C-alpha cells in the first residue's frame, strides 16, 4: 500500500504539472539493495536478483493497471543507474559534502535506519 500511495500521489502531481504546460519527467522504480530483499528472497527459496525481477515486474503491472503516467521505471540494479550513482557519489565526496566515519548503532532492518538506544526505548522497538 505504501508504494501505491506515494506513486499515485506523484502521478497526480505529474499530471497536474503537465496540465499547466510544464515539462515533467516522472521517474519511479524499485530499490533493490537492502537486507530485506535478501531475507525475502531466501524465504521464497529464490535469489535476490530473481526476487527483484519478479517484484519489479509486479510493480510495472500494478502501475499499468492503475494508469500511472510515469516516464521512466528505474531499478537500482540497472547498470546505467549504478553509473550515475557512482558519478554523483564521487562528486559529493570530492566536494567534502560527505565523508567516511565510523558509526555505532543498532540497525533496524524494517525501516532501514540506524537507531540509538534512546529511540529504541522511546518507541518500544526490539
UniProtKB/TrEMBL annotation:
Residues 1-118 form the Methionyl/Leucyl tRNA synthetase domain. GO terms for cellular component: chloroplast stroma; mitochondrion. One of its GO terms (molecular function) is methionine-tRNA ligase activity. GO terms for biological process: methionyl-tRNA aminoacylation. The keyword Transcription regulation does not apply. Keywords: Aminoacyl-tRNA synthetase, ATP-binding, Ligase, Nucleotide-binding, Protein biosynthesis. PANTHER family: METHIONINE--TRNA LIGASE, MITOCHONDRIAL, METHIONYL-TRNA SYNTHETASE. This is Methionine--tRNA ligase. It comes from Pisum sativum.
Amino acid at each position: 500500500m505504501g508504494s501505491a500511495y506515494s506513486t499515485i500521489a506523484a502521478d497526480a502531481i505529474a499530471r497536474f504539472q503537465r496540465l499547466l504546460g510544464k515539462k515533467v519527467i516522472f521517474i519511479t522504480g524499485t530499490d533493490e539493495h537492502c537486507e530485506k530483499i535478501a531475507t525475502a528472497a531466501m524465504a521464497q527459496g529464490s535469489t535476490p536478483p530473481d526476487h527483484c525481477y519478479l517484484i519489479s515486474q509486479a510493480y510495472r503491472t500494478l502501475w499499468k493497471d492503475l494508469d500511472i503516467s510515469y516516464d521512466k521505471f528505474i531499478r537500482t540494479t540497472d547498470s546505467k543507474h549504478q553509473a550515475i550513482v557512482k558519478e554523483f557519489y564521487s562528486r559529493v565526496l570530492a566536494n567534502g559534502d560527505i565523508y567516511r566515519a565510523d558509526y555505532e548503532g543498532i540497525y533496524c532492518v524494517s525501516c532501514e535506519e540506524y537507531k540509538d538506544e534512546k529511540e529504541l526505548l522511546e518507541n518500544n522497538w526490539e
